[in-house]
Amino acid sequence: MSNILIVEDDRAINQLVISGLKIAGFHCFQAYYGMEALRIYEKEDIDLILLDINLPDSDGFSLFRSFKHTPIIYLTARDGLDDRVKGLNLGAEDYIVKPFALPELIARVQVVLRRFNQEESLFVRDELRVDLGKRKVWLADSSVTLTYQEFELLAVLIRHKNLALTREQLIDLAWGFDYAGDERTVDVHIQRLRKKLELHSLKTVYKLGYRLEV
């Protein structure tokens, strides 16, 4: 389980981010001030930092080098091109502007952790085992063959477990933002996953989409 430090002085946003990340399976630490973040960082084994720029006692740019070689994603209301370029040139892995969609934030966190090989790759639920890294699936010790898109959708559901995702969000995350097909293709692929994997915990969320409950 990866440890993520959220450095954000807006308490509502801080708590929202932590709630979403915890549901997705991460262990979180929260800080509202730069100095508080540094104390936590020196004490705990942190795998990733979500860092605001405008903090009460410091700014995220000046704090960057204090976090050594830990990957950082800026999470800020500062949407100017100069700020984006500065943050990325410092070495940040990503730059996310508020307001943001929680599923997208979680997806970006997972991308960075995969890049640093710190995301857990094995998912186990009853008789189902999924190796996200090797793209292999077993049910009751028998290998299950999934199409490329079926596996992509399953991986998104696993990485966002316990979160209700709309069909539009599932398409963006599993098919890509440039996908031009019908949202009903999500329903077809969900039915196939349920049948192939006996995935009774893959729930339909009325008038919204789907959620993998674990």
From TrEMBL:
Annotated ranges, domain Response regulatory: 3-113
DNA-binding feature ranges: 120-214
GO terms under cellular component: cytosol; protein-DNA complex
Pfam families per record: Response_reg, Trans_reg_C
Keywords: DNA-binding, Phosphoprotein, Transcription, Transcription regulation, Two-component regulatory system
Gene Ontology BP term (one): regulation of DNA-templated transcription
Cited InterPro entries: CheY-like_superfamily (IPR011006), OmpR/PhoB-type_DNA-bd (IPR001867), Sig_transdc_resp-reg_receiver (IPR001789), WalR-like (IPR039420), WH-like_DNA-bd_sf (IPR036388)
OmpR/PhoB-type domain boundaries: 120-214
Modified residue annotations for 4-aspartylphosphate: D52
Any one GO molecular function term: phosphorelay response regulator activity
Top-rank taxon: Bacteria
Protein name: DNA-binding response regulator
Organism: Vagococcus elongatus
Lineage of origin: Bacteria, Bacillati, Bacillota, Bacilli, Lactobacillales
